Amino acid sequence: MMSCIEGFERFDSPGKGRGLRITRSFKVGELLFSSPAYSYVLSVKERGCYCEFCFTRKEHLARCGKCKKAFYCNVKCQKGDWPMHKLECSAMTAFGENWCPSETSRLVARILARKKTQKQRCVSEKILLIEELQSHVEDVDNEKREMNEADIAGLHRFYSKHLEFPDHKDLLTLFSQVACNGFTIEDDELSHMGTAIYPDVALINHSCLPSVIVTYNGTSAEVRAVQDMKPGDEVLISYIDLLYPTDDRNNRLRESYYFTCDCQECKSRSKDKAKLKVRKQSDPIEPEVVNNMVRYARKTIREFRALRHMKTPSELMEMCEQSLEEMGAVFDDSNVYMLHMMYQAMGVCLYMEDIDGAVRYGEKILKPYSKLYPPYSLNVSSMYLKLGRLYMGLGRRSMGISAFKKAMVIMEVAHGKDHYYLTELHKEMAQK
User: Fold this and answer.
1) What range(s) does the SET domain occupy (predicted)?
2) Do residues 206 and 234 touch, judged by C-beta distance below 8 A?
């Protein structure tokens, strides 16, 4: 509970509602607080790679003897997870290949089970925080409402044996709360591992100039300073990817969180010109041509996102290359829309095991990323890690070590010097 953590206080943040501020100083890289998850769930795609209970990545995990689909470090982890895993264990066996609740439905099921089984004295405090979380259920558009209805149907279908459900209205509110306040747990390369609810961390408001960063140690969230902070400063994180220009960021905030940011960066738009850099030509490019290309880029990004699970890798690569050629007639290579499609192309190359192609795109991305993202950005460190591992795989050891070292500078601030990821990275660097 935040009220029990020294150095913080809740307050009414002007224009934002409740917020969190510090009552003592913090230096860059210093841990403000660590928060255990109220509830969490491992992604189905990561089963067999991570322990379901503690999210430790290791080989030779022990398989659940009943469903054969959940994996654990040892008996202790398996027993620890049973109150949650039992919600799914028999159902996965019964439904077989037809067992397909969404990750959000799985998380909501665990929240409902946690509320029911926790000791009343402890849960009374936590339920208060869960129920206080913003839902914006009245602002949900038809598309999101349909998704929530589908998730609720999945909840009833796959979890009715072990759960008693609140009424439909309360379920809609809970799903909306999870959508607005859920956190994606990611690994060191920002790959999706699972989803969790951290009521204490959810108190922190957004800024495009964040003072802290949230990273994960197992299933716990850790909040560290990325700026020097003094007593009275509000604790601020970014809810979104900060690569994009002001209008794009605020469109995303309105779509997902129902507000517009008025931080200093959004007011000044100081980085927008660099983020939307156009190619140098003997004759200046007309503003209308640039605006048309911005619209094309946004449309292409939306289409790629919608089609990426339906197209073949070669078709996706063709989309990337075609859009890069089209945009490249107007945009500089460091333009964020070019970087976005290069990043997608790099991912497709990795999937197709075209390592040289992935390296080519990664090298084009890295320098602009370092300039356009804030200091200590995980997007930058993850790119250094990706490239470092690709270099090592290609036998380019000195380049790999150099990339790893640059990643570590960021990770030591964002994750802390004693984090498991840093320990593993030191081992990678020591390998011949």
Assistant:
1) 6-240
2) no
**pTM of the full predicted structure?**
0.92
Number of domains forming the structure of the chain:
3
At 45-81, the pLDDT tens digits run: 999 999 999 999 999 999 999 999 999 999 999 999 9
| CA-to-CA separations, 55 to 45, 102, 135, 204, in angstroms, rounded | 13, 19, 28, 24
Tell the residue number behind the tokens 């356009």, with chain if given. 372
Rounded to the nearest 10 degrees, the angle between the axes of helix 120-132 and helix 103-117 is 140
Length of the chain (residues): 432
Q: Which domain holds residue 306?
A: 276-372
Please indicate, yes or no, whether residues 84 and 198 belong to a single structural domain of this protein. yes
List, in order, residues 6 or more apart from 305 with CB less than 8 Å away. none
Read off φ and ψ for residue 308, nearest 5 degrees.
-65, -20
One DSSP character per residue, 191-246 reads -EEEEEE-TTGGGPEE-SS-SEEEEEETTEEEEEESS-B-TTPBPEE-SS-TTS-H
Give pLDDT tens digits for 325-358.
Answer: 999 999 999 999 999 999 999 999 999 999 999 9
Element (H, E) at 325: helix 313-328
